[in-house]
Amino acid sequence: MGFFGYYTYIPATLIYDDPGIRNKAWLDTLYNKYKPSDTQYQFTKGENGKTVIRYPVGMAVQWAPFVFAGHLLAESFGYPADGLSPPYSWSVLIGGLIYAFIGLWFLRKVLLHFFSENVTMITMVLITMGTNYWAQVASDTVMPHSNLFTLTTIVLWCTIKWHESPKLKYAIGLGLSLGLATISRPTEIIWILVPLLWNVKDFPTLVSKIKLAWTHKLHFIVFSLALVSMLMLQLSYWKYTSGSWVYYSYEGYFSLSSPFFIDAFFSYKKGWLLYTPLMIFAIAGFVIIFQRRREVFYSILFFFCFNCWVIMSWECWWYAACFSNRALVEMYPAMAVGLGYMVTFLIDNRKMLLKTISIVVLSTLLILNLFQHWQYNHGLLDGERITKAFYWRMFLNTRITDEDKALLEPEHWLADETITDFSNLNKVLTSKVEFENQTSTHEYKFDTIAPHSGNGIQVLDSSHQFSLVYKELYDNLTSKDLIRIRTKVWMRFDSSFSGKEPPMLIFDFGLEGRTRKYKQYHVDTLNKTIGQWFQFTADYIPPLHLHRDDCFATYVWNPSGVPISIDDLEIEVYEQKH
C-alpha cells in the first residue's frame, strides 16, 4: 500500500542512517517481516546506487514527531526498534487522529467566520459524517487525505485571518501549511489560488489586492520563504537520490487536454457525486456565496474548478481502491463554505415543506454515506471494480454472494487471466491475421512450406524475431468498457528449444509510444513434436479504456532465434453480459 512509500523516509533516516537506501538489506528485512504491501512498487532506481522513494516526503515530516515517540517506546518496552513494530504503527495512527482533531478545530473556526454556531455545527456534522472524509479518518488514517484536510483548512484559516488583519504570523502559517501540503501531495499547490484571489470580486478590488500585497511586501517575502523552505525538503531529497532537483517518480500521466469529468463525477465505478451526493448541496451553495459574499466567491470557484480539472485528469481518475474519490477530500474545507451557505439558506427559508424535505434528504444522504462506508469496510462494495449492475444489486444490501461478485469488473492485473467461465460473456468479434501472399522484407520473413491452412506462413528466426502485429483501436473492438480478449496462434517448431528461451505471445495496450499494460505468455516448448503444428492460446484483460486513441496489439516474439513457423493468428473479443 501507499503508506509504506510515504513512511519509509523515517526509518531510513532515523534508524538506519540510509536516506538513499544504498543498502537494501534492511528494507528487504522489514518488507519480508511485516509485508506492508504486495510488492516494493514504492521505490525506483536512483543515481549512484541510491533508491528513490516514489511518494513525496511530506507525510513523513508530519508523522516524524509521533514516530520518534514510538521509537523511544519500542526501546523501552522491548519491541524491535526496527521502524515497523507495533509502537511505530500505533504512533502513526495516533498521530493521524490528532491531526484529524486539529483539522476539525480549525474547520470550526473557519465556519464561525461565516456562520452562526448552529449552522457551523450542522455543517461540520454533514462534512465529517456525510462524506468520504469519514472513510479517510476511520478506515484510511495512514493515507494522506485526512492530514491534508487539516493542512488545507489551516491554509483557508490563515487566508481569512491575514485578510482580516495582516500579520506576519498568518503569512508564515500560510506558507508553511501550503508548503507542507504540497510536499505531501504536489497538486495541493493549487490551493495558492485561494489566498491570491481572496477578496477579489472585480477589477477595483483586484487593484486594491495588489496594493495591499505591496504594502505588506515583507509578508509576501516571508510567506514565499516559508513555502520554499518546505519545498526544499522534497527538492533536496530528489537531488540527493536522483541527481535532479525535480524528479517525476510516479507512474501514470495527467491527461489535461481530456479530463475524465463524466466518469469522475458520475460513474458507478467511482463517481464522486454518486458516492458522496451530499456535495451536490455544497456545489449548489456556490450560487448563494455569489449572492451574499462575492468577495470570496471567485477564489473558491476558481480553486474548485481548477482542482477538479487537475485531479480528474489523472489517468487513474478513480484513485485506486478507496471509498468515493479520496483525492477530493482535501478540497472539503472550501466546499464546507458552500455547504454552510446552503444550510443557512434552508434554515432561513420560511417554507416548512422545503425545510422538511431538506432535513429528510440531508439526513438520508448522511445515513447512506455511513451505511455504504460500512459496506465498503465489510467487502460488500469493492474499492474500484463496481459496475452499474453490481451497484444496484448491492444497494442497501447487507450480504454478498458469488453471483453478486460476478457482476464486478474483471480484475485487470491478474497473474493468470485465463477465461474459465464463458457463461457471463458474449463473443462480439473474431478477427484473424493470415499470412497469405506476403512478401518477405528485412523485418518479416514469409514462406509457403506446409502451412497450417491457406498458402502462407511467417517464419521467426534470429533475423526476424517478431511476427506481424495485430493492432486495433479499442473503440473498433467494442463499445463497452469491460472486455476480455483471447488470442490463438498456430505454431510449428522447426528445431529443438532445449536450453533456449521459448517464444512468447505478447499483449500490449495503450497510446502510441506509451504502454499501460504489457503482458507476455511463454509458450511451453516441452513435449512438442518437431515439424508438427499445435495451437497456443492465451487470454488478456485490457486495462480501463481511457483515451480515444487507446490501441490493443498482439503478436508473437521469438527472442531465441531458433526457427519457428506461425500461422492463423486469431483474436476473439468477449463482452460481459451485464
What's the structural blueprint in terms of helices and strands?
Layout: H1 2-7, H2 9-14, H3 25-34, E1 43-45, E2 51-53, H4 58-76, H5 86-114, H6 117-129, H7 133-138, H8 145-164, H9 168-182, H10 193-197, H11 203-215, H12 217-242, H13 261-266, H14 272-275, H15 279-292, H16 294-311, H17 332-348, H18 352-377, H19 388-394, H20 402-405, E3 425-433, E4 445-447, E5 457-460, E6 470-473, H21 474-477, E7 483-493, E8 504-511, E9 514-522, E10 533-540, E11 551-557, E12 564-576
Summarize the structure.
The protein has 578 residues and is of the alpha+beta class. A hairpin with a 2-residue loop joins strand 8 (504-511) and strand 9 (514-522). The chain has 21 helices and 12 strands.
What does this entry look like structurally?
This protein has 578 residues and is of the alpha+beta class. The two termini are 31 Å apart. The strands form three sheets. Strands 3, 4, 5, 7, 10 and 12 form a six-stranded antiparallel beta sheet that branches. The protein has a four-stranded antiparallel beta sheet with strand order 6-11-8-9. Strands 1-2 form a two-stranded antiparallel ribbon. Helices cover 46% and strands 14% of the residues. The protein has helices spanning 2-7, 9-14, 25-34, 58-76, 86-114, 117-129, 133-138, 145-164, 168-182, 193-197, 203-215, 217-242, 261-266, 272-275, 279-292, 294-311, 332-348, 352-377, 388-394, 402-405, 474-477; strands spanning 43-45, 51-53, 425-433, 445-447, 457-460, 470-473, 483-493, 504-511, 514-522, 533-540, 551-557, 564-576. It is globular, with a radius of gyration of 28 Å.
